[in-house]
Specification:
Elements: E1 14-17, H1 18-36, E2 47-50, E3 56-59, H2 62-68, H3 74-89, H4 94-113, H5 118-139, E4 141-142, H6 148-159, H7 168-181, E5 194-200, E6 208-210, E7 212-215, E8 227-236, H8 244-248, H9 256-280, E9 284-287, H10 293-301, E10 305-307, H11 312-322, E11 339-354, E12 357-367, E13 375-381, H12 384-407, E14 409-412, H13 416-429, H14 436-447, H15 449-457, H16 462-474, E15 480-482, E16 489-491, H17 492-495, E17 498-500, H18 501-519, E18 523-526, H19 537-540, H20 549-559
Parallel strand pairs: 5-13, 8-9, 9-10
Antiparallel strand pairs: 1-18, 2-3, 4-14, 6-13, 7-12, 8-11, 11-12, 14-17, 15-16
Length: about 550
């Protein structure tokens, strides 16, 4: 050991150090951004993802793409986290955030080739991010929660390019109505109070906002009422069946009298449970477990409508909306545990004829609820794939409208904030000392990548667009952006292209966090049994050091 270096890693461990590790990590991060780059903007292209089971997803939603893709590279996964964070924080801007992260990594690689130390690049990027945030806050426009027009523009901007354009005005109006109804007293939005449901078989134009809760589950008995007014609602965390000890017990029956007594004891147990429900005054029961046929008959006789095996989300949603307290023991049930709904009714969503036999799909609607802000966006569409994409667009819109209401500030879209920030960064770079100045300038250049991609995806000349936008912003037109349809420069607020301030600030912070973390890595050590590409070493070379792009490229190639 005195004649050579001490070995502390096992023979199976693999290690990549220094420039090699950094280069492979930067390449992996940029590859993620390049994969989804063409989806950006109202004219972005869609991607088709096919998994091993043959299931198909067609979308241009950034976070959906990255979640569905087989990304195995650890550095690439950090960039995927950018989209995940963006989605969780605000619901939109995932593609823009990832493209920015990719551009920051690409520019950082050029700086590294000029012998700029990673810590200098990281410091410059951090400084630039703070400057960008200040710029965004300076140019942001205040929006009031009652400003329906601007909020609908925010919703519509988030939907643009996601398959919902044909009914954008209708869907935007529905989203704003739903979100505004879910605003709490402290000004925050309870997004869980807004449910999104889909039924295919009609036009998107037939979508609507329903003031209440919908769930597609049939009453346990065909003779139970489908139309009730002023209903008391019981949310029961159990079943209305014979107890397990009774069902599992072995009974020795000597004659028919013994058999009859055994059956009567079971029926008596069920009758006691139903009596407890009746005495409490319940009109509707949502049970976690099953409901015995005999118990169902008793409930019908008492005019009670019951639903069995209702999942936890639905039970919780109904309990919160009706004011019911979830009960686990019917022996403790009182009228105080019950919630209230002004109406509980069945609504036929669509008629279906299968082999000349009429059938229908219906849903149960809990309406006229005491808790305000409970609503459901009911989406219609021709096919399941279309509806899935429209639902993703609507969910994104709910997030951005909520952010606009909670924060009270919006920005112009169309690349306007990015160009304004890029100009500010170039000016700021002159006041930064040392090599960090180069990092700030690199950040400014990376910020232009979004508007450039927006123009390219719309089929316009990206260089001309950037030059013209820069000139207009340099002249003081801070809200001017590119119209993706015409390629012309227009005032974004007048054109109705508006985004919440939080979309941009979160994207910047997430992209900077991911890129700087990757930049600071100079050593990658993997365990011997870690196969980054999910293949044997002799089958794809992916069993090598994490950073070998074989694993990631193979995964994406199989999905795209």
């Amino acid at each position: 050991m005195a004649d050579g270096p001490m070995v502390v890693l096992s023979d199976e461990s693999q290690r990549t150090s220094g420039e090699d590790a950094r280069s492979m990590n930067l390449e992996a991060g940029r590859a993620v951004a390049e994969t989804i780059r063409t989806t950006l903007g109202p004219r972005g292209m869609d991607k088709m993802l096919v998994d091993q089971g043959g299931n198909v997803v067609v979308t241009n939603d950034g976070v959906t793409l990255l979640e569905e893709m087989d990304v195995d590279h650890p550095a690439a996964d950090m960039v995927v986290d950018v989209a995940t964070t963006q989605e969780e924080e605000v619901g939109d801007g995932t593609t823009s955030a990832v493209i920015l992260a990719g551009a920051l990594l690409g520019n950082a690689e050029e700086l590294l080739e000029q012998d700029i130390h990673p810590t200098s690049i990281v410091a410059g990027y951090r400084h630039a991010a703070e400057t960008v945030t200040e710029v965004f806050e300076d140019i942001a426009t205040e929006v009031d929660p009652d400003d329906t027009e601007v909020l609908e523009q925010v919703a519509g901007t988030a939907m643009t390019g996601k398959g919902a354009e044909t009914a954008k005005d209708l869907l935007s109006s529905m989203v704003v109505s739903a979100v505004r109804a879910a605003v709490r007293e402290d000004g925050t939005v309870d997004q869980d109070a807004v449910d999104v449901r889909q039924f295919y078989g009609a036009s998107i134009d037939d979508s609507e906002f329903v003031d209440g809760i919908l769930f597609d589950i049939e009453p346990v008995h065909q003779n139970m009422s489908r139309d009730l007014d002023d209903a008391n609602v019981l949310v029961y965390e159990g079943d209305i069946e014979v107890s397990e000890t009774e069902v599992g017990a072995e009974a020795s029956v000597g004659d028919m009298g013994d058999l009859q007594g055994f059956v009567e004891r079971e029926q008596s147990e069920l009758a006691d449970k139903v009596d407890a429900i009746v005495e409490a005054g319940a009109d509707v029961v949502l049970a976690d477990g099953g409901i015995d046929e005999y118990a169902a008959e008793l409930l019908v006789e008492n005019g009670i409508t019951a639903f069995r095996r209702v999942d936890d989300d639905k039970r919780q949603r109904v309990a919160a909306a009706t004011g019911a307290e979830r009960v686990g023991d019917l022996k403790l049930l009182t009228a105080d545990h019950l919630g209230h709904a002004g109406s509980v009714s069945e609504r036929v969503i669509r008629d279906v004829t299968v082999r000349r036999q009429a059938d229908h799909e219906s849903t149960v609607v809990f309406g006229d609820l005491p808790e305000e802000g409970v609503g459901t966006i009911l989406l219609r569409g021709g096919t399941e794939h279309v509806l899935d994409e429209v639902e993703r667009a609507v969910v994104d819109s709910i997030g951005v409208v909520s952010a606009a209401i909670e924060d009270g500030y919006v920005l112009p879209g169309g690349g306007a904030p990015e160009i304004e920030a890029s100009l500010a960064l170039r000016e700021e770079a002159d006041s930064v000392e040392g090599r960090e100045q180069l990092a700030v300038e690199a950040f400014a250049e990376a910020f232009e990548d979004g508007p450039r991609t927006l123009a390219e995806n719309a089929g316009h000349d990206a260089i001309d667009a950037l030059v013209d936008m820069t000139a207009r912003h340099d002249a003081g037109d801070v809200n001017v952006g590119i119209d993706a349809d015409t390629g012309e420069l227009v005032e974004m607020f007048e054109d109705g292209v508006v985004e919440p301030l939080r979309v941009k600030t979160t994207a910047v912070n997430s992209a900077v966090d991911a890129s700087t973390m990757i930049l600071r890595i100079d050593d990658v050590i993997s365990a011997g049994d870690l196969s980054v590409g999910g293949e044997d070493e002799d089958e794809g070379g992916a069993g090598g050091p994490p950073g070998g792009m074989g694993g990631m490229g193979g995964g994406m190639g199989g999905m795209m």
